[in-house]
TrEMBL record:
Family: Belongs to the NAD(P)-dependent epimerase/dehydratase family. Dihydroflavonol-4-reductase subfamily.
Species this protein is from: Zasmidium cellare ATCC 36951
PANTHER family linked: ALDEHYDE REDUCTASE II (AFU_ORTHOLOGUE AFUA_1G11360) (PTHR10366:SF562), NAD DEPENDENT EPIMERASE/DEHYDRATASE (PTHR10366)
InterPro entries: Epimerase_deHydtase (IPR001509), NAD(P)-bd_dom_sf (IPR036291), NAD(P)_dehydrat-like (IPR050425)
Domain NAD-dependent epimerase/dehydratase residues, every copy: 12-263
Keyword Aminoacyl-tRNA synthetase found: no
UniProt name for this protein: NAD-dependent epimerase/dehydratase domain-containing protein
Keywords on record: Oxidoreductase
Amino acid sequence: MAEKALPKGSLVLVTGINGYIGSHVADQLLSLGYRVRGTARDSTKLAAILKRLRQRNAAAEVEGLVVPDMQTAGAFKEAVKGADGVVHLASDLSFNPDPNVTVTATVEGLRNALTAASSVPSVQRFVYTSSSIAAVKPTPNKQFQVDSNSWNEEDLKLAWAPPPYEPSRAFSVYGASKVASERLAWDFTKAVKFDFNTVLPNMNVGRILDPSQSASTAGWVKGLYDGDEGASQILQGFPPQYYIDVEDCALIHVAALLEPDVKDERLFAFARPFNYHDLMETLKQIDPSRTQYPPALNDNRDLSKVANGRALELLKRYGRTDFKDLEISLKEQLLA
């Protein structure tokens, strides 16, 4: 493997290590010979994922630190000590419709992580997990381009419209939190010594590392597969968008951290477009005996063209030939 920006044995801070994507980022780094320090809000969840990571990587060095509130000034001061790189995945996933809560929490958490990293001479690389929704609001049946110049201005306006902050505004507020935080990061890192990149994942599916994880979108897919009505309703109402296998997404994060030629880039972790109908039909192929899926409300399609070529190029450096197929990804999750 070609020379990396951080040599093997370097210490990488992974915030939100107990999360669906964060656990896979840590797992990939450990498998490549890096040391990992992870943070989580909850000590029980942190202990569970650390145990699982140690089971999967017996000789690896992984440790954890509880950060109960990333908004608190100096929240990551201890966690970043001695780190060579940072992957900041922790975010406010409460879907509180009040932007003063959700946007503020995400922005201040990132600001604290960046401030901590900039105060430690050893930090050379920083990766921020943004989101597809920072660049684009899902818009069915319309052709348009998504690239590094794309920003979701629509949700930013919707989120900060006058109150009341109804629950229907929750996804727009989440989108606004990602727009605001990523913009803060690009502004902040104009004057820092470390290299900075962002990864913008669309809907993650695939293997869940530990059964204790809710696993966000993958948890909904598991619920749909098992006949959970709540999960079915959520996914039935989801707009068409792109999926990405979580291991592919994690490797894109790893590439953003380790590849020396990747600097000041927005990497789009988008594999292929799909909709609820595609998801339902794929689940039927995996197990034809399960027929409990509610019907698709429509066959709307995501017709956007996303600049995901760079992400695929980087995946190929880590042994992939293409983005993982949806059926393979779901089989790895549901039949493991």
